[in-house]
Predict the 3D structure of the following.
Amino acid sequence: MKYLAFAVAIMLVTACTEQERDVNTNHTEKHERADNNTTSMETQIPTSLKAEHEELHKKLESYTKLPGKTGIAAKAVADKLHPHFNKEEEYALPPLGLLPDLAEGKTSDEMRAVIPQTDKLKEEFQQMLAEHQQIVKTLDELSAAAKEENHPEVMQFVDALKLHAKTEEEVLYPTAILIGEYLKLKL
């Protein structure tokens, strides 16, 4: 994750430098440079993030089947988490699929397609954080139930999901927003 933040910082510095250089070049040169930097774009959620979401969902699903307070608390988490994951997969995570191309300096007009997603994330950022807070409250209840009913694996899951949410807040969401801002400057 440290490398991801570093890569985004490098991209922003590069964008600012290139924007200044573009001011001093003519229109034709800009188009020639853009043509040399194009790449075909697929805005897909990075497979590592998609797999992590699927694994978290799968584990939570299994915990909803546990008897007692733990199962009930796990269902409450699932009720809050599922719609939140859907939002993330709709507009927060797909822009991150562009990072490998952007890190190589490749851009294309097709990449503009993610700008509405990143704008939506920027607009919904505080709401997404508020949802995380609600999810964490239900996770605390799940942890308490799991502790009471001796389900250490559920307590580990709670810790992993809280860390996942923190990573989204500190790295993934800001990076997705920066991708949109970078593309606005670059394109």
